[in-house]
Design goal:
Layout lengths: L2 E9 L2 E8 L9 E5 L6 H13 L27 E7 L4 E11 L4 E7 L13 E3 H9 L5 H6 L15 H27 L7 H6 L2 H8 L8 H4 L9 H32 L3 H6 L4 H18 L5 E8 L7 E7 L4 E2 L7 H21 L5 E5 L7 H14 L4 E6 L2 H12 L9 E10 L3 E7 L4 H8 L2 H22 L14 H14 L3 H9 L2 H8 L10 H18 E2 L4 E2 L8 E3 L6 E3 L5
Parallel strand pairs: 3-12, 3-13, 7-11, 11-12
Antiparallel strand pairs: 1-2, 1-4, 4-5, 5-6, 8-9, 9-10, 13-14, 15-16, 17-18
Helix pairs in contact: 4-8, 6-8, 10-11, 12-13, 14-15, 15-16, 15-18, 15-19, 17-19
């Protein structure tokens, strides 16, 4: 089962409507690369997918998390209901919405998820991995680390929560609100009774109502009446009645606060029954350890690791430790020997392995990597993606990134059979995000800027676009066709440096017409396309259009819109082609 399309409305950073279609030109649901700068809405799209399929956000059922962005768009004065719809490749539909109801008693908006359960095909493990998952591992104590990992096993029901769980944050917030309200009423009672030097603890420890009554000797010579001076003044019956009302409200709030304290303690408590449940996880950990150990040795740049295993329940019923066995037989914790990059890689593979075990249990094969490779060295992250493309070749993959160099590398990896591909994918480019409009998304593919300029029929726009466009083509082809160029300091080159080698390579594969047309009108690039000169105004529209059309023709002959790759090949190879083979040229042998 694969995602063919998602529609999102009023969710996270998407105030209006947003739709992404993951089907390729043949109509088949494929993988996706979502590119955009920080804060442009990538995670809002990823969160919407997770929410729709699993009724969770960041693996938490409590979707309103004080530590994360608002679930509902805050563009409107009042919360609007949010809607998400996923269409699968079998034409089935899954809807999941957020309804907002105003509760007059609490004077708050109550947010309800409908429906509340995971989709049947996504109820074993998470589908999304985020950077925060790697960070969270170290923040959890060893004796409770299984609580963190239990969140990666959705069919494992346990009540105990990790300390960062939004439900704990919610209870703590409610407890603090009750405490503040109680303290405010205590101050009001003290002012009403003209008590200046009394400690607040004395009022609620023994009960505020008892305090007031004993203070005025209405229950005999007991309690506070024995420990403090009796008040000389007398209270009017109505004043006494008001004081008792305040005291009763204080006692009520104190009782609620104590209940919230117990509720918070119970959320992190692992009782005997739940402790025994962890025994059932050992087999899954064993399977995950096999995947992790094999993958780490394959991907990492270290050669001293023999295996990676787990120590489960050695410290407590919910304890979990990763143990690295070195080739010399010594066993050490990973943080004592790995670099930050290798340590992060190991944790990433731990979670990936847990998700992989979930798929072996029957979950649909979808994996989303949301900017998880930021701290990993370039070489390691390249190997990691190659590993994923190879081992998860029949999965639908979604990868977000904000770095254009990494985007280009991802394209190459997805298209390279020797690196685990070719893995069919679709690219989405988030141009920008605005508070009122949300993300603006382009379905990336062929670069359409020159074609769009030609459609304007505006000679100035066409001329100013064609020159830089040709420079971009030359820069790409000089690398992909292994063109010979004279080396410059800092590897910075102009079109004058590149064109000669590119031209020679193009002539060798039979693109004589394209080369001739560009050569004939190359002067346009300098006269009109890049610089101003008075005699450039004498250039005819025909010449400018001829140059632009020649550049566009060269682009169409060297960049494939099917696999989004450039024609490439080693200098000594006879065949030059794109990754899918749609564009294919043979080197012309010179007699």
């Amino acid at each position: 089962m694969r995602i063919a399309k998602i529609d999102i409305e009023s969710f996270r950073g998407i105030p209006g409507h947003c739709s992404l279609d993951f089907r390729d030109k043949s109509g088949k649901a494929c993988s996706a690369i979502i590119y955009g700068g920080n804060g442009c809405g990538k995670s809002s799209i990823i969160d919407a997918i997770e929410f729709n399929l699993q009724a969770r956000l960041a693996r938490k059922k409590e979707i309103e998390n004080e530590k994360r962005p608002s679930t509902l768009s805050v563009f409107y004065e009042k919360y609007k209901t949010a809607h998400t719809t996923v269409e699968f490749d079998d034409a089935s539909i899954n809807n999941r919405d957020i309804d907002v109801e105003f509760d007059q008693l609490s004077n708050k908006d109550i947010i309800n998820v409908k429906p509340t359960e995971c989709h049947d095909s996504f109820c074993f493990s998470p589908i999304v991995l985020r950077r925060n998952d790697i960070i969270a591992y170290d923040y959890q104590k060893v004796d409770n680390k299984q609580l963190l990992l239990a969140e990666f096993i959705y069919d494992f029901e346990i009540k105990a929560k990790t300390t960062d769980d939004p439900e704990i944050a919610r209870v703590e917030k409610e407890r603090q609100e009750v405490k503040n309200k109680r303290n405010s009423l205590i101050d009001k009672l003290k002012a009403f009774l003209h008590i200046e030097n009394e400690e607040s603890d004395q009022i609620f420890n023994a009960g505020a109502e008892n305090y007031v009554k004993s203070r005025f000797c209405l229950i005999g010579e007991i309690g506070f009446a024995q420990k403090s001076k009796k008040l000389k003044q007398s209270l009017h019956p109505k004043e006494f009645e008001k004081a008792i009302e305040l005291a009763k409200e204080i006692d009520k709030l104190q009782s609620i606060k104590k209940r919230k304290n117990r509720e918070k303690r119970n959320l992190v408590k692992i009782d005997d029954i739940e402790g025994k449940k962890f025994e059932s996880l050992k087999e899954r950990y064993k399977e995950a350890a096999k995947h992790l150990s094999k993958a780490f040795k394959e991907i990492s740049n270290v050669d001293f690791v023999s295996s990676i295993d787990f120590a489960v329940a050695d410290v407590s019923v919910a304890s979990f430790e990763i143990i690295v066995t070195l080739k010399n037989g010594r066993k050490v914790p990973p943080q004592r020997i790995f670099s930050e990059a290798n340590y992060d890689l190991m944790l990433l593979l731990l979670y990936v392995s847990m998700i992989r075990v979930g798929a072996e249990k029957g979950q649909a094969k979808i994996l989303i990597l949301d900017d998880v490779l930021q701290s990993v060295d370039a070489t390691i992250r390249t190997k990691f993606i190659s590993y994923v493309l190879r081992e998860f070749s029949d999965w639908q993959l979604f990868i977000t990134c904000h770095d254009r160099a990494w985007l280009n590398q991802l394209r190459h990896l997805f298209n390279n059979p020797t690196k685990g591909g070719r893995h069919q994918f679709k690219e989405f480019d988030i141009v920008k995000w605005s508070f009122d409009g949300g993300p603006i998304i382009n379905n990336a593919g062929k670069d359409e800027r020159l074609k769009k300029a030609l459609n304007t029929n505006d000679i100035n726009i066409i001329a100013s676009t064609a020159g830089p466009f040709l420079e971009m083509i030359c820069e790409k082809l000089s690398g992909f066709l292994n063109c010979q160029i004279s080396r410059n300091p800092d590897d910075k080159y102009t079109i004058g440096d590149l064109w000669k080698g590119v031209k020679s390579a193009l002539l060798n594969i039979g693109l004589e017409k394209e080369v001739k047309d560009i050569n004939d009108f190359m002067f346009i690039r300098n006269m009109v396309g890049c610089h101003y000169s008075s005699w450039s105004e004498e250039t005819s529209d025909f010449e400018i259009l001829s140059f632009a059309n020649a550049v566009q023709s060269l682009y169409d002959k060297t960049f494939c819109d099917e696999c989004m790759s450039w024609v490439s090949g080693k200098f000594y190879e006879n065949n030059k082609s794109c990754h899918c083979g749609k564009l294919h040229y043979r080197k012309i042998r010179k007699e």
